[in-house]
Amino acid sequence: MDEPPQYVVQQVKEALAADPRVASLDARVRVVAEEVYVQGDVGTEERRAVVEALVTRLLPHHRVHNDVRVIGELDRADEEDLT
Amino acid sequence: MRVAAVADLHVGLDSCGLLAPRFASLADDADLLLLGGDLTQVGAPDEAKVLAAELDAVPVPVVAVLGNHDLHQDAGDELRAILEDADVTVLDGDVVTVTVAGCSLGVMGDTGFGGGFTGASGSAFGEREMKAFMRRTEQSAARIQTGLEVLDTDLRVALLHYSPVKDTVIGERAEIFPFLGSSLLAHAVDAAGADLVVHGHAHAGTEQGVTAGGVRVRNVALPLIRRPYRVFRLGH
Questions:
Q1: Does residue B8 come out as left (phi exceeding 0), alpha (psi in the -120 to 50 range) or beta?
Q2: Touching check for B162 and chain A: CB below 8 Å?
Q3: Maximum Cα–Cα distance for chain A, whole Å?
Q4: How many domains does chain A have?
Q5: Of A20, B104, B132, B166, which one has the fewest beta carbons inside 10 Å?
Q6: Could you tell me where the beta strands, DSSP code E, fall in B117-177?
Q7: Mind listing the pLDDT tens digit for each residue in B63-81?
């Protein structure tokens, strides 16, 4: 890709949305020179790995920083009293 | 009445075994579980089968609506059938009543849709695509109002995927607010009255809000609440 960073970001976001293994509509992508930062939350380690593979394939000359978090251990459910 | 609620589970084929443990203590925590849409990743029937298996041991009634991810493959009816076979009540503009210890709770369930919020909302004007977009939301709002009005129960909850208020999408980028919900949904809730609205969709939003008419709204998107579910105690 040899485009302005804004268009590159949109192309990466569309790829992350279109791939059914990820289907992420809310990943945050930022391109700074030859570095690309991807942030957000996914449900499994597999999806996090797919994000990295997709971005690496799209931007082979960029260094990919995969800051995507896996929603793993959750806090205990609590109760809100609305009576 | 204790109502557990969560949205945006985004179950995929790689989710086997992940959800069931999260619901293990549900019987101690709540009388009912509400699922506010985006149950699956891309709306594939096989994903719904994974979810159905994960919900198999849930010991309380489960009521759900579909979200935009669940409708991605135009297989909403198939998903609904798979989940209904697993004793999940999937609402699409209709209602269900659950009674616990003599207290009746009616759930009006609808996916909802976008359009934006008061002061910055779209209108059914101009191109036919824009009119179709807003009419989809108007139809949803009409179903929500009618559904809540017909519920003759002690408590009434609206279960949506899209947000009815701006409050609970704050945290998302303002540019996408019109794709996260619509004030038309809140107007419908306020016209009919309700004890609570729960929704998802806005993963980076805010948990708590209130409609202009004073109905509490809770965003229970899993990436936001980071708990298996939230529990709300309702009653008069």
A1: left
A2: no
A3: 58
A4: 1
A5: B132
A6: 155-160
A7: 999 999 999 999 999 999 9
Cβ pair A71:B44 closer than 8 A: no
Alpha helix (H) ranges present in B151-232?
183-192, 222-225
Considering the domain boundaries, does residue A62 fall inside one? yes
pLDDT per residue over A7-66, tens digit each?
Answer: 999 999 999 999 999 999 989 999 999 999 999 999 999 999 999 999 999 999 999 999
SS3 B212: coil
**Residue of chain B whose alpha carbon sits nearest to that of A41:** B223
From chain A, pick out residues whose CB is under 8 angstroms from the CB of B216. 82
CB B42 within 8 A of CB B175: no
For chain B, what are the domain ranges? 2-233
Interchain CB distance below 8 Å, B233 and A47: no
Is the Cβ–Cβ distance between B54 and B13 less than 8 Å? no
Task: For residue B36, give the amino acid letter.
Answer: G
Interface of A with B in 27-66 (CB under 8 A): 41, 43-44, 46-47
What pTM was estimated for this model as a whole? 0.94
Q: Which CATH number fits domain B2-233: 2.40.30.10, 3.90.110.10, 3.60.21.10, 3.40.50.150?
A: 3.60.21.10
Provide the residue type at A42 as one letter: V
> Given CB atoms, is A10 within the 8 Å cutoff of chain B?
no
